[in-house]
């Protein structure tokens, strides 16, 4: 497909205008690997400054209106004040990410720890996160557990599932109306033998048992190499159990690189399933979040680039000729069907996205607009001693 007709153009632009991408507070802060954190200039010193940076991304792209918080990294005394500050900046607070992986107590696990006192402490943190959601107005509690074992025999795999189910139940029962529990799975790391929520099947089974407010999070970096992530998207959407994405790119393990940088074709295939499932609309309830770290590249431009990458993949997926695809599939035309998909993927959507931004009164090139804005020079001068995201030291 080289030409985009006027009708298609309008349809695609309308859908793109409704797209929402949530950026993570921790992506604005310093981060690194277990080997080194390279501090950068102008990095936020507190949650307010992270929100200010997120608001810049939104002002330049118009599709990133919320920012996810992480507790305790973004702990403040007055969450209502933080929410008000965000609103004044033109954004809102998004998902609350719990953290039960950083305390010494969690060496053998948090909610699946053999010690009931440690489990209690971990569950209390999850409940506290729901209290915070009440104050921030957040809809989603995002749960990722580092829980697991390193050696066969270290703990009883089945009993740990019982402890997990009990903790999730208690947390789920604390949710208010309109609040959701999002359960994120991860194949391995930091546990190297048996992770307690290692895959979508485990997350799905627990969410199914919990009820309608529990949904699965797909972090694109959390699979074995070669895993067909778009299959998981299609399956969970069909089952009504896909709640959110943590978008990022991986070459090896949980690399947390910019989404769309390692495998833009995979991102397109994922977004194709989203469009196929009519799940792009915010009312469909899928939270499209980034979960990334920008260890060596400047952070705000990297987040802008990531947002644009998601937008480009989405635009291409919206260009798939659904009727032609269905007809070729029905006719068993293998090459024809594949060609329909590839035509859309190979279309250069950058002019269309530039046009969309111009329609919205934005600069057609958000990267260049940021570079010209002087914002970096301002924060570099103002902020000394930026905050570390919380891990990787
Ligand atoms: C960890 O690997 C997960 O991707 C988490 O979603 C996340 O990076 C962490 O909990 C920060 O909130
Ligand atoms: Zn994640
Ligand atoms: Zn991760």
UniProtKB/TrEMBL annotation:
Coiled coil: none annotated. SUPFAM superfamilies: Xylose isomerase-like. Residues 77-272 form the Xylose isomerase-like TIM barrel domain. Keywords: Isomerase, Manganese, Metal-binding. InterPro entries: L-rhamnose_isomerase, Rhamnose_iso-rel, Xyl_isomerase-like_sf, Xyl_isomerase-like_TIM-brl. It comes from the Bacteria. GO terms for molecular function: L-rhamnose isomerase activity; metal ion binding. GO terms for biological process: L-lyxose metabolic process; rhamnose catabolic process. PANTHER family: L-RHAMNOSE ISOMERASE. NCBIfam families: RhaI_grampos. This is L-rhamnose isomerase. It comes from Micromonospora deserti.
């Amino acid at each position: 497909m080289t030409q985009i007709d006027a009708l298609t153009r309008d349809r695609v632009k309308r859908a793109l205008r409704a797209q929402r991408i949530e950026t993570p507070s921790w992506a604005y802060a310093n981060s690194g690997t277990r080997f080194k954190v390279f501090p950068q200039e102008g990095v936020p010193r507190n949650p307010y400054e992270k929100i200010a940076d997120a608001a810049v991304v939104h002002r330049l792209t118009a599709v990133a209106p919320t920012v996810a918080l992480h507790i305790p990294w973004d702990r403040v005394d007055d969450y209502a004040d933080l929410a008000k500050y965000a609103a004044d900046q033109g954004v809102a607070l998004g998902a609350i990410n719990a953290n039960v992986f950083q305390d010494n107590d969690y060496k053998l696990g948090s909610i699946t720890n053999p010690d009931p006192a440690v489990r209690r402490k971990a569950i209390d943190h999850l409940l506290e996160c729901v209290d915070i959601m009440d104050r921030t107005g957040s809809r989603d509690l995002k749960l990722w557990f580092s829980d697991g074992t390193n050696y066969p025999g270290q703990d009883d795999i089945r009993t740990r599932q019982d402890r997990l189910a009990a903790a999730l139940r208690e947390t789920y029962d604390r949710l208010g109306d309109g609040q959701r529990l999002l359960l994120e799975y991860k194949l391995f790391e930091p546990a190297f033998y048996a992770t307690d929520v290692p895959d979508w099947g485990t997350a799905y089974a627990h969410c199914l048992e919990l009820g309608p407010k529990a949904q699965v999070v797909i972090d694109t970096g959390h699979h074995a190499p070669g895993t067909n992530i778009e299959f998981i998207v299609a399956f969970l959407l069909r089952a009504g159990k896909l709640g959110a994405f943590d978008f990022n790119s991986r070459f090896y393990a949980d690399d947390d690189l910019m989404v769309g940088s390692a495998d833009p074709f995979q991102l397109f295939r994922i977004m194709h399933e989203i469009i196929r499932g009519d799940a792009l609309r915010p009312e469909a309830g899928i939270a499209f979040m980034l979960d990334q770290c920008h260890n060596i590249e400047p952070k705000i431009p990297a987040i802008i680039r990531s947002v644009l990458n998601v937008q480009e993949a989405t635009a291409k997926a919206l260009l798939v000729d659904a009727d032609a695809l269905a007809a070729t599939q029905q006719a068993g035309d293998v090459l024809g069907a594949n060609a329909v998909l590839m035509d859309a993927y190979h279309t250069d959507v950058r002019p269309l996205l530039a046009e969309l931004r111009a329609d919205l009164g934005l600069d057609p090139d958000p990267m260049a607009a940021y570079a010209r804005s002087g914002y970096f020079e301002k924060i570099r001068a103002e902020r000394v001693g930026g905050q570390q995201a919380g891990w990787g030291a």
